[in-house]
Amino acid sequence: MGRIGLQLRATLENITRLRAEGEDFRWYLKDSAPLKGGRGSATMVQKCKLCSRENSIDILSQTIKPYNAEDSEKFKTIVEFECRGLEPVDFQPQAGFAAEGAESGTPFNDINLLEKDWNDYDEKTKESVGIYEVTHRFVKC
C-alpha cells in the first residue's frame, strides 16, 4: 500500500493552527478489507480471518501538521500513514483537536469536529470563531 496522506479542508473563521492535540490523539479511521500482509510494529494491527496475515497502519507522527488560517477552504495533508495490507477509506473527526485565535492567540482546546462544524467566542478580540464545512480525502504520498 505505502504511504497514505489524510487531507483536510475546512472554512476557518478567526482561527488558526487547527491540529491534533497530544501524542495520544485518536485518528478514527475506517479501513478497507485486508489485502496483503506485513511484519513489524504498527499503530494498528489487524489479522485477516481468511489468510491469517497481519495487516497494519502506522501513524507517521513526524508528518502531523496544523491546518492554518491561510489553508482555509483548501485541502492540506495533516498526517500520513504507513499502510501495509490496509487502506483507510473514511475518517471521522471527533474530539481532541485544538486551535488558537488568529489575531489573539487565544487557545481553544478539546474541539469536537464530529458535527463537521464548531464555533466559540474569542473574549480577547470580541469576535466569534469557528470551523465550518469540514471535509477530508485520502491521497497517495
Automatic annotation (TrEMBL):
The keyword Zinc applies. InterPro entries: CXXC_Zn-binding_euk (IPR008584). The lineage of its organism: Eukaryota, Metazoa, Chordata, Craniata, Vertebrata. This is CXXC motif containing zinc binding protein. It comes from Callipepla squamata. PANTHER family: CXXC MOTIF CONTAINING ZINC BINDING PROTEIN (PTHR12857). Keywords: Metal-binding, Zinc. One of its GO terms (molecular function) is zinc ion binding. The keyword Metal-binding applies. Belongs to the UPF0587 family.
